[in-house]
Amino acid sequence: MALTKPAVLCLNRAGEAVAHRIAQLLDAPVHGRKTRVDVSDLFFDNALEHARMLFAAGTPVVGVCASGILIRAVAPLLADKTTEPPVLSVSDDGAVVVPLLGGHRGANRLASQISDALGATSAVTTAGDVALGVALDEPPEGYRLANPDAAKEVMAGLLSGKTVSIEGDAPWLEGLPKGDDLRISCGLAPSDADLAFHQQRAALGVGCARNCDPAELAALVAESLAEANIAPGALKAIYTLDLKADEPAVNALAASLGLPVRVFDAPTLEAETPRLATPSDVVFAEVGTHGVSEAAALAGAGAGAQLAVTKKKTKNATCAVALSDAPITELRGRSRGRLSIIGIGPGQHSWCTPEASRLVQEAEELVGYGLYIDLLGPLAYGKARSDFPLGGEEARCRYALERAGEGRDVALICSGDAGIYAMGALVFELLDRGPDEMGVSDAARRVEVVSTPGVSALQGAAARAGAPLGHDFCAISLSDLLTPREDIVKRLKAAAEGDFVIAFYNPVSKRRRTLLADARDILLEHRPADTPVMLATSLGRPEEHLRYRKLSELDVDEVDMLTVVLVGSSHSRLAQLGEGPRMYTPRGYARKMDGDLADKSA
C-alpha cells in the first residue's frame, strides 16, 4: 500500500541541510520551526502541537530532531498501531535514522531509504527485520496477507529457530530458513497454511439491478469464487460501470471484502467487447455496453488478462473474474468519488477532530470559503483548493459535488459543525432536488457523501463560559437573508416563553442591526434584567475575546458576525470564582437532593 507523502520537520538550523536532503529524496515538504529555520515550505510555532496535528491527520512524520520530542508529541494519541502513520526521527547530522512508530507500515522502509541516501545507520528494532530481514505482515504491492493475526505467531516461531516451507511464488521470503516446521503459501487459491499470502492477480467485475439485495450479490460472488478456487484475497478491486457507483449492493460487497470500487464509463467497457464471452445486445441497449461484469473485470485486470470466470448471474446480479499473468499493482478506472463535509471547529487546531483532520489529509481538493481553508494551516499545504466568497454557498456546494462526481476525493470545509448553520444541509438539498429544480448531475448524485462532526461555535462558547448549556437550550440564527423576519420573531417568542438558554448565530451584519435588539427586548419580557449573557468573538483564534453582560445591558454595537451570543435562561447564573466568572445553568440536582432529604426525614 502506497504511503501518504510525509512531512519533514526541521527544528533548528543545525538540521536544516539534512532536512532538505530528505525532503528532496522523498519529494516531501519541509516544515520548519519559525525563527529557528531559514528556508522551509511552511513554518510552525510549536513543535509538539504541529507534530501532533500531522499525526492525527494520518501524515507520516520524519522529524530531524531528538526522538523524545516526537514521542512526547504523539504519545497522547496512540491507540491502534494498525492505523497509525509512520513516525521517524533523524539526528541533526544525518548519522542516525530511528523508526519510532509504524515499522511494518512503512517506517522501516522509509528508514532504509533515508539511511541509504544519507549513508546513515538505520536503527530498526522490530524483531523480524533485525533477525530475518523481512516483515511478514508487510507484503509488497500486489500481494495480500489473508490471515494477518497469524503473522506474530509465525514470526515468533522463526525467531525461536523453526523452519518454513514456501508454497508458490513469494520472492521476498526467499531468505527465510527452509524446512518443514511451518508452512507459508502464496497463490490464488484459499489456503490453510500457517501464513497465507495471495497474489492479487484477479479483478472482480460486477453488475446488478437498481437496489439489488446486497446479500444476493454477495452470495453470487462467493459461489463464483469458490467454484473457480480463487480466494477473496487474490482480488485487487471490484470493478463496475459508472452508473452503478452508488449501488448499495456493490459498496456493501466492497466493504465486506475490504476492497476499493473502481468504475468505467460505457465507452471504455464497450471497447472490451471483442474479449467478452457473453456479449449482450440487451445490455447494450440499456447501458451502452455489450457487457458489464465481464468487461469491467477485463478492463480492471489489463490488456493481457483473460476471463477465469465468465458471467455468472442471478435474477438481479452478475459477476465475472479476469486474471492477469502477474500481480496487479495499478488501480485502473476511477474511484466512485467522495465528498467529505467537514466542520473544522471555530478555528484552533486542537478543536479540529482527528477524523476531520484525516479526511482533510486524504482529500485531493479543498473547497470552501477562503478564510476557512486558511484556518487549516499546514493541513492545506500542497492541496488543490477552490476558494469561494461569502454569499456563494450554493455555487460552492454544487462545485464540490460535481468535482467529486468526476471521481475525486473532495473536502468541503466549514467552520464549526458543518451540519449546524453550514453547508451540510445545502449539499443534501442539492442531491434531493429533481432534474428540473437546478439540482446536480447524475454523476454527482452517485458520489459517497461523508459528514464528520465538528465543534460548533455554541459548544466552544459554552466551554469557555463554564456550563451554560447544562439544561435545555436552542440555537437561533438572526440572519433574515434566507429566513423571513417574521419566522425569526416567532421563534424568538417561543424560545423566550419556553425559558431556553439561547445561542444566537449570525447576530448582526453591516446592514442588519436591529434583530438582536429586538431579541433582547422580547427576552426581557420573560426573564430577569440581570440574566447573564456571554459574548464570544473569534473563538479559538489568537484574537479570541470573551465578555459577560446583563441582558438589559446587551449592546448591539459590541457584537459582530464573528460573535456568538449566549443568553442564559431565568435559572442561569454567573458565578465569581477564583479563576474568574463562570456561567452555568443548573439542571436541578440541588432541588432533587432537597426533595430526597425531605422524603427521608418525613
Explain this structure.
This protein is of the alpha/beta class. The chain contains 20 helices and 30 strands. The relative contact order is 0.06.
Task: List the SSEs and their pairings.
Layout: E1 7-10, H1 16-26, E2 30-33, E3 42-44, H2 47-56, E4 61-64, H3 67-74, E5 87-90, E6 96-101, H4 107-118, E7 121-122, H5 127-131, E8 143-145, H6 151-159, E9 164-168, E10 182-187, E11 195-199, E12 202-208, H7 214-228, E13 235-241, H8 248-257, E14 261-264, H9 266-270, H10 281-287, H11 293-301, E15 306-313, E16 317-323, E17 334-335, E18 338-343, H12 354-362, E19 365-369, H13 370-374, E20 384-388, H14 393-405, E21 409-414, H15 424-432, H16 442-445, E22 448-452, H17 457-465, E23 466-467, E24 473-477, H18 485-498, E25 501-505, H19 515-524, E26 532-537, E27 545-550, E28 563-567, E29 573-577, E30 580-584, H20 589-601
Parallel strand pairs: 1-2, 1-4, 2-3, 4-5, 6-7, 9-10, 10-11, 12-13, 13-14, 18-21, 18-22, 19-20, 19-21, 23-30, 24-25
Antiparallel strand pairs: 5-6, 8-11, 12-16, 14-17, 15-16, 25-28, 26-27, 26-28, 29-30
Helix pairs in contact: 2-3, 7-8, 18-19
Tags for this model:
single chain; 602 residues; alpha/beta; 7-stranded mixed sheet; 6-stranded mixed sheet; 30 strands; 31% helix; globular
The protein's oligomeric status is single chain
The neighbouring-strand order within the major sheet is 3-2-1-4-5-6-7
Shape: globular
Radius of gyration, taken over Cα atoms and rounded to an integer in Å = 30 Å
What proportion strand?
Answer: 15-25%
Query: Spans of 5+ residues with little confidence (pLDDT < 50)?
Result: none
